[in-house]
Specification:
Layout lengths: L16 E6 L4 E6 L11 H9 L8 E5 L5 H9 L4 E6 L2 H13 L5 E5 L14 E6 L7 H12 L2 E12 L4 H10 L3 E8 L2 E7 L1
Parallel strand pairs: 3-4, 3-6, 4-5, 6-7
Antiparallel strand pairs: 1-2, 7-9, 8-9
Length: about 200
């Protein structure tokens, strides 16, 4: 388990790489490494979310839950320079990359925070978020995933939405049902190539 990208201390040998995020309004060159999610390319689910998600709020507190090396957080920060973007992860290698990528891109509004254990109650984190984007770590298993989403979705500000991208064959439909059963309004916002983007609101 320690070699997985969602481990607190990945043991994979370092192998530096680069991923380009090219969107109509944003072009980022991001450093990657082994031991983080989708180090060799921009994950197609992440790409779908970046392509279809509505523009983030111009200001406020925005969250990238499970930020990895930072593609979602840095696009949020690029599109909403007056917002505070909170990039959280359990993986210190990913957080270091995210912070370095934000600095390289000149995005001073990104804050990278380790959340092992305390989750949304970690010191310094805001009480409410005006937007959540996430490519959640499905492979942690349902109990851990449900606990993670329950904790963080509960911090959505009134009227705010979360956008989660999940591969269909990894359980997007069952996750949508679980969210509905847990009291959320969860709808399929977009779909492409076996991936689903779910819009989640209270």
């Amino acid at each position: 388990m320690s070699s997985q990208y969602f481990a607190e201390q990945p043991t994979a040998a370092h192998r530096a790489g680069t991923v380009h995020v090219v969107l109509p309004d944003v072009h980022l060159t991001l450093a990657t490494d082994s031991g983080v999610f989708s180090a060799g390319r921009l994950d197609p689910g992440t790409r779908l979310l970046l392509d279809v998600a509505p523009p983030p709020p111009a200001d406020g507190d925005l969250l990238d839950l499970g930020c990895g090396y930072g593609p979602l957080a840095l696009v949020q920060a690029s599109r909403s320079p007056a917002a505070r973007v909170w990039a959280v992860d359990i993986n210190p290698r990913a957080l270091d990359l995210c912070a370095r990528n934000a600095a390289s891109a000149g995005l001073a509004n990104v804050r990278c925070v380790a959340v092992a254990g305390a989750g949304p109650d970690s010191p310094g984190l805001p009480a409410r978020y005006d937007l959540i984007w996430s490519n959640p770590p499905i492979r942690v298993g349902k109990p851990a995933l449900h606990g993670l989403l329950t904790a963080w979705l509960g911090r959505l500000a009134p009227g705010a939405a979360a956008y989660l991208v999940v591969q269909r064959n990894l359980g997007s439909d069952s996750l949508q049902r679980w969210l509905a059963e847990a009291g959320w309004t969860a709808s399929r916002f977009a779909a492409r190539a076996g991936y689903r983007v779910l819009e989640v609101r209270r």
